[in-house]
Every structure is written in C-alpha cells, then in structure tokens.
C-alpha cells in the first residue's frame, strides 16, 4: 500500500485505519498522497456534464461575490466576519430570489440548481474579492 514518497489508496482498499496511522506516525511529511480510482476520467466527465447555463450562473456568481465582498469590507471596516456573513446572505438572497421570481412570474425557467451554481460562484468570488481587497488595501 505504501509507496516511496507517497501513499496510494485504491477503491478496493478498505484499510483506512492503517492509512490514518501511517499519517500520524510518519516522521516526515509525505511528498504526496494519491487517491486512485478506476476510470480516471470520472471528474473530467463530471465537469463535462455541467450544462453551459450553470457555468454562466457560476461565473456571474463569482463577479457578484467579489464585488459584494469588497463592498461589505468597505461598509464594515475591520470586521471581516460581519462583512463576510452579510455578503453571503446577500449572495444567497439574490441567487435564490431570481429563481423565485422566475417561479412566481412565470418568466424564465425555474431551476434551483441555477441558484446553487450562483451561490457556489458567489462564495468563490467572495474569496477572490476578499483576497484582492486585503492584498491591495491592507498590505
């Protein structure tokens, strides 16, 4: 199971206790931990299955999260947790609000996964916006 410079787990291995003990008792940090599953194209195929519409919502969410995170940190200077929680609340409200508006008015297509894609993109954008804000203004 152990290999030079790393530890290999396959889908057939059920010996996770040995893996955890190996990590705890290892005198030096491993150079890599590799998890190998049969059918190595699983994640590539999973990403291909995400429709272009969801990708648009994801990228719009990134922009929305970044702008709102910077605005939140300008509104709540020095209070990162408050700015982040308020930004997350606005991202969730806007993302789900547009889907709810589509459902109520009948215009557009109601799909909750669009809101999920926007929220995931919004969280990614919050990380990027907060990182850029701290790098530019607080460094």
Which terms would index this structure?
single chain, 139 residues, mainly alpha, 2 domains, 3-stranded mixed sheet, 3 strands, globular
Report on the structure:
- The termini are far apart.
- The protein has helices at residues 16-25, 42-48, 52-75, 80-105, 112-137; strands at residues 2-3, 6-9, 33-35.
- Helix 4 (80-105) packs antiparallel against helix 5.
- The chain has 139 residues and is mainly alpha-helical.
- It contains five helices and three strands; from the N terminus they run E-E-H-E-H-H-H-H.
- Strands 1-2-3 form a three-stranded mixed β-sheet, with no helix packed on it.
- Strand 2, helix 1 (16-25) and strand 3 (33-35) form a beta-alpha-beta unit.
Stretches where pLDDT falls below 50 for ≥5 residues? 33-37
Overall mean pLDDT: 79
The total beta strand count reads 3
| SSE class | mainly alpha
Q: What is the N-to-C succession of helices and strands? A: EEHEHHHH
Widest beta sheet: strand line-up: 1-2-3
- Termini separation comes to 45 Å
Summarize the structure.
The protein is mainly alpha-helical and 139 residues long. Helices cover 67% and strands 6% of the residues. The chain is built from five helices and three strands; from the N terminus they run ββαβαααα.
């Amino acid at each position: 199971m152990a290999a030079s410079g790393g530890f290999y787990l396959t889908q057939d291995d059920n010996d996770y206790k040995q893996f955890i003990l190996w990590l705890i008792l290892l005198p030096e940090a491993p150079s890599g931990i590799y998890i190998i599953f049969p059918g190595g194209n699983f994640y590539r195929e999973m990403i291909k299955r995400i429709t272009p519409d969801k990708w648009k919502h994801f990228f719009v969410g990134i922009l929305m999260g970044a702008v709102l995170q910077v605005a939140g940190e300008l509104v709540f200077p020095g209070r990162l947790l408050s700015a982040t929680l308020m930004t997350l609340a606005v991202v969730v409200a806007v993302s789900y609000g547009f889907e709810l508006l589509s459902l109520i008015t009948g215009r557009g297509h109601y799909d909750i996964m669009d809101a999920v894609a926007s929220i995931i993109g919004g969280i990614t954008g919050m990380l990027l916006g907060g990182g850029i804000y701290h790098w530019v203004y607080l460094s």
